[in-house]
Amino acid sequence: MPKRKTFYSFHFKNDVMRVQQIRNIGSLEDNKPVSANDWETVKKSGDASIKKWIDDNMDGRTCVVVLIGEETASRPWVKYEIEKAWKDGRGLLGIHIHSLNCPNNGKGSMGASPFTGLKFTDSDGKVKTIPCKNPSVNNAYNDIKDNLEKWIEEAIALRA
Questions:
Q1: In a 3-state reduction of DSSP, which class is residue 123?
Q2: Residue 37: predicted pLDDT
Q3: Tell me: the pLDDT tens digits for 112-140?
Q4: Does residue 48 lie in a domain region?
Q5: In what order do the strands lie in the sheet with 63-68?
């Protein structure tokens, strides 16, 4: 399977520690995390700068993986990233990460799907459902590790 360039969309403040676990799995090409300071700087520079940062970082990516925590669905920049991914023809999928253990907060509660209320249609006008995976509560890390590449390929194929 080819290595895919993946953009991870998530709620930074609440979920960065869980996201780091996924990024460190190593099944995909190296995706450098955004440090807290970089994100804080971008956030303070205004909406236009945030959009540019997202657009620049999403450029060249084949798939957007939305890592869904408790509050991800309510984050406006996550919605922007989802809509941009679909408009640009990228693979798109969600993975619930509440069952991953966070060193600071433990496990979380399952968050709502950020795809709810959004309509996704292909070029023929057919409505598509975005895959949203819910890894095993007892073994979430290994479930993600064992299936991440396959899930990404399925999301990319959905757009083909």
A1: coil
A2: 53
A3: 999 998 999 988 899 999 999 999 999 99
A4: yes
A5: 6-9, 63-68, 91-96, 132-133
Q: What is the CATH number of the domain that holds 110?
A: 3.40.50.450
DSSP-H helix ranges across the chain: 12-23, 36-44, 47-58, 76-87, 140-159
Q: How far apart are CA 92 and CA 158, in angstroms?
A: 9
pLDDT under 50: residue ranges of the chain: 27, 33
Domain assignment present for residue 58? The answer is yes
Count up the domains in the chain and report the number. Answer: 1
Q: Using CA atoms in the order 31, 77, 145, 154, what is the torsion angle rounded to 10 degrees?
A: -100
Position 1 in a domain: no
Domain range holding 108?
A: 6-159
Residue 50 within any structural domain of the chain = yes
